[in-house]
Amino acid sequence: MSRRRPDQPYPLSRRGFLGAGGSAALLCTLGGSKTLEDASPRDIDRADAFAARMEKPASARQDAAGPGDAAQPQPGGVKREYWIAARSLRWDIAPTGQDEWMRTRVSGPRKFRALVYQRYSTGFGQPIGPAGMPGPTLEGEVGDTIVVHFRNADEKLNQAVTMHPHGVKYSPQYDGSYLGLFTLAGGFVAPGEEFTYTWECTPDSVGVWPYHDHGPNHTLNTLRGLFGTVIVREKGAPRPDVEVVHFMHSFPPNVTRLRRLFHAVNGRSFAGNTPTVSARVGQEIAWHVIGGDGNFHTFHVHGHRWRDATGTFVDNPSFGPNETITARWREDNPGRWLYHCHVFQHQDAGMAGWYLVE
Amino acid sequence: MSRRRPDQPYPLSRRGFLGAGGSAALLCTLGGSKTLEDASPRDIDRADAFAARMEKPASARQDAAGPGDAAQPQPGGVKREYWIAARSLRWDIAPTGQDEWMRTRVSGPRKFRALVYQRYSTGFGQPIGPAGMPGPTLEGEVGDTIVVHFRNADEKLNQAVTMHPHGVKYSPQYDGSYLGLFTLAGGFVAPGEEFTYTWECTPDSVGVWPYHDHGPNHTLNTLRGLFGTVIVREKGAPRPDVEVVHFMHSFPPNVTRLRRLFHAVNGRSFAGNTPTVSARVGQEIAWHVIGGDGNFHTFHVHGHRWRDATGTFVDNPSFGPNETITARWREDNPGRWLYHCHVFQHQDAGMAGWYLVE
Amino acid sequence: MSRRRPDQPYPLSRRGFLGAGGSAALLCTLGGSKTLEDASPRDIDRADAFAARMEKPASARQDAAGPGDAAQPQPGGVKREYWIAARSLRWDIAPTGQDEWMRTRVSGPRKFRALVYQRYSTGFGQPIGPAGMPGPTLEGEVGDTIVVHFRNADEKLNQAVTMHPHGVKYSPQYDGSYLGLFTLAGGFVAPGEEFTYTWECTPDSVGVWPYHDHGPNHTLNTLRGLFGTVIVREKGAPRPDVEVVHFMHSFPPNVTRLRRLFHAVNGRSFAGNTPTVSARVGQEIAWHVIGGDGNFHTFHVHGHRWRDATGTFVDNPSFGPNETITARWREDNPGRWLYHCHVFQHQDAGMAGWYLVE
């Protein structure tokens, strides 16, 4: 299967709309007679093969909007540019092989082929930071634009992927979503291709939001690791002393080909592998937690309480897929604390970690 | 199995309480050793057969409260009368046979025998609008009463059904719920029978609420389509320019006898079949979204953000079964947008659609 | 298997960290290649056997903090002492054998070996009230301390258990959580042992919170009944006329060894077994509802509406595991009403009951 390049035109399927060549891989198998839970590894293979064969819709072949069409920063705002590539890598879900909370060995294989967003310096010069989950955090203030030069650098799965952001404002060409025959250029970035997204930080963008793949095989590729964070602040707003973003998500065995289901925080499972968060008494903590799979979760931190958006004191709020909650407090309680999702099945399969306060 | 009519008395079971003749169909099979997910089509058949054999509890045979007992509108309020029948019809879950988002054919059979609420003109004269999901929207203002003349016109499943509203106030006889030996007349409307419900729009009724079957086989019959909406506004409150009500629900294959699970919006699955919502820049949009099955969902609209009830900006809030969230904004972003539930399994099985802004 | 007593030292495993003797029972089976849903009764047996063999971590052997280390009440506050033991008992999930709502017999066996918290008078003198689910409600006002003298009196399962509270403030030694090699004394209370927890009612503790086992086999033991409530009020705040706490939870058949799944309110399933709540017109009602299992629920009361924490009128809010919502109103609607979770599968398997208003 040859790798498609920007200079190779994508012929429209002779069979046109709904032809097999234009089918969306995932829905053919998972959205058909089976659900994600029922899908066998072979179904997943088939979905990937479909996705790799998919032709770019004609509507997505047109040149992306030029600089003149992209939104500009508001007066006083700036353009914040990022260079980000989607790439494949072997990912170890539990590098220590242990669960420090329950003092158990993590049984069975733990590595699989992940897809992640990797940040680079200007012009895709050098990688910035390790590739991982979540992808790079994109930051802006109200009035700014966030400009992402995105490259699909995956050479393994050979599928179109995208970046679709929540929270920020964008016109349709920067939506980053596959939409069948209505797909625009940013919604189908084939392997080897690049696309530049321009997103606006409007007053109603203030918050912490996910971004993720929304290409034609988005369910599988998001589960493989194609997700990250956008943070938009009020103009000049200070950052909290400690700011943490946690995606709570899972690795189904039919997707990873591993023997077991892992529930994870930022791509890792079980305390000692999941992020260990540190703070000191007196610091202001903001802990942003985002649902990263198809499940509903709660976020509990031992020894701490905080006000939710209604002003009610909570220590274990619930949230849904791609929904964000923020826990925020002034630290006053030193010790080693556990954080975890309070769904039994999730905490027992790895969705827990340490919070250390000095 | 003869059709029961109002003039045929319902003899109490000789076997009395807990006799087989008086058993609630659904619980006998689904609430017993099996859950809804485990139930075979044969279990569903058995539940339906039980429900069709059920005798009306003696408490429900007494004459319904007369006009003198029903609440009257508050000074300045009005009585809003509706004529609504429950009826059975063949329902196509995806009439186009296609998913416009993912450019796939919707495989396999898509039609099943649904149960829906149909509105009629005064005195059950003529049908008003097509029968479908959700049923007719009932509207009132604070101080009004909503009076529903309800007829069970189903001639296929031959079971007692009801209308149970959320949000509005009612005395027990207008609860519309089967309650075993405590059932009142509105809680068991046998095939061919009629019952008139009177519901009050009180100050704490302001909002958008579901109504649904709450008869003895309510789980199955609600999943078959017996649900609709009540909207109560402040006195004289203007309507938004565009007001949309979406039920997000599902059609389990054991209930529909179809080969696959469909996730649906207003009874339809997959973009191009689910409602295509239209608006123009400058209009005020109110999008009310209600959980219509046993699942938890989120509601995401591409390109848009809004304040939730806490004042926080969101673009993907979560909600539970028969819970309502409202997304409200002044439209400012033209284009073709996708709306969908962000639970992977739901969006991939049809819970998505188009939002078109000019 | 000999019962461990406080005077018997716990030798550290020769195999040290991650040795089989130090494995956490539950995770070995459930968190490994299986999930709770997949676990066979034999897996559960194995988890229990592991838990019964577990050695106390060395860190938990040190003397618990003495009175000098425990927090003292604030000026004007008091110390509220409770004596509570964990004990095993046979528990009938549906003592009437009937479902009054649906007029059905509850099929099959209904009794299993539960683990519950039982309150005693000072110095473990006499039991106070019946042992059951939820355990004793602990109450305090801002400025108070809640001091719980806890004894693990279980003689059947022979496992370490604890009390871990939400909402109140505590230093790590009073967290009541097993933390592997970082476990402190309150996180591993072996059979026959005692531990005294001191928890502070701080201003951000105001609310209604769960407490529950957080020992090394907490998922199973919480599902068996080890949970209860903490209520913290503002100083001098009056109590509502009627105050109800409902845990909405479930009994999976692999844990109970019964033939079927039960969904329960406070340990009982099906109307007539679940609590029947009573009130009179004019009374102020506060109904606190807490998620007690790994599921998400909603709480619906027929004939009533109330403001949620955002000020929005609701009659069916959703909540997650160990999350609390409070429904609060001035009673004005006499009759027999149903309350239930609106997840079909939960209400049909017993999560419903009566609310009687005179």
Q: What's the helix count of chain A?
A: 6
Secondary-structure element order of chain A, N to C: HHHEEEEEEEEEEHEEHEEEEEEEEEEHE
Residue stretches of chain A low in confidence (pLDDT < 50, at least 5 long) are: 1-23
Oligomer: homotrimer
CATH class of the domain at 238-358 in chain A: Mainly Beta
Span of the ends, CA to CA of chain A: 55 Å
Give the percentage of residues in beta strands of chain A. Answer: 25-35%
Could you explain how this protein is built, in words?
3 copies of one chain form a homotrimer. With 358 residues, chain A is mainly beta. Chain A has a domain at 238-358: Sandwich (Immunoglobulin-like), CATH 2.60.40.420. Chain A has helices spanning 25-29, 41-53, 58-61, 218-223, 253-256, 344-348, and strands spanning 79-92, 98-99, 104-105, 111-120, 127-128, 137-141, 145-152, 164-165, 194-200, 207-212, 227-233, 242-251, 262-265, 277-279, 284-291, 297-298, 300-301, 306-307, 313-314, 318-319, 324-330, 335-340, 352-357. The longest helix of chain A is centred in the first third of the chain and has 13 residues, at 41-53. Chains in contact: A-B, A-C, B-C. Chains A and C meet through strand 2, strand 3, strand 16, strand 18 and strand 19 of A and helix 1, helix 3 and strand 19 of C.
